[in-house]
Write a structure and sequence with these properties.
alpha+beta, 7-stranded mixed β-sheet, 7 helices, globular
Length: about 200
Amino acid sequence: MAYLSEHCAFAHLTEDLAARLQGFSCEQEPAIADFFRDEAVLNERQLLSKSYCFYLSDTMEAVCAFCVSNSNISTRAMPADIKEDFVADIPDDKRRSFYPATLIGQLAVFDKFRSEHVGDEFLSLIKVWVMTEASQIGFRYLVVDAVNRPGVISYYERNGFVTLFPDEETEKEYRGIYGRKPLRTRFMTYDLTLMTI
């Protein structure tokens, strides 16, 4: 299905566009809708992230949106076995302590369009956009802090993302989080070299 590419316009979410768009609603994660409606432009002014969206140009309804910022993956605190797996496909002379990445900081399909099943297409289009339009500097990975719910984790897994750590306890140790509470998010990665094969 190609709902987004066939029916929607794609644009940088500027202050003017955000003011004209309708339908920023995300019942499952209201804070994400609030971010795109109220905070995305402020984040950009502070050079923290940039936001983009797909929308219906005839009705000015927001269909889905995402924001991106620079990030990295540090191997310094990784357990040896996880680090070994992580760098396995990287030539020895190119290995380092930090690997450049782009963080998808927020991602939402707004409520009215959830029934269109655009989620997989959305993530595929983000990958293509990152590889073409956003590739002015080098980075190898897309990373997300995925909300720690089975449906969200399986969505990213279905689209080629993997959890970097095999369990929450190992991830907590890496991130310096202590206590018994479950993680609110899981760190997941997508290796962009998979798109060049």
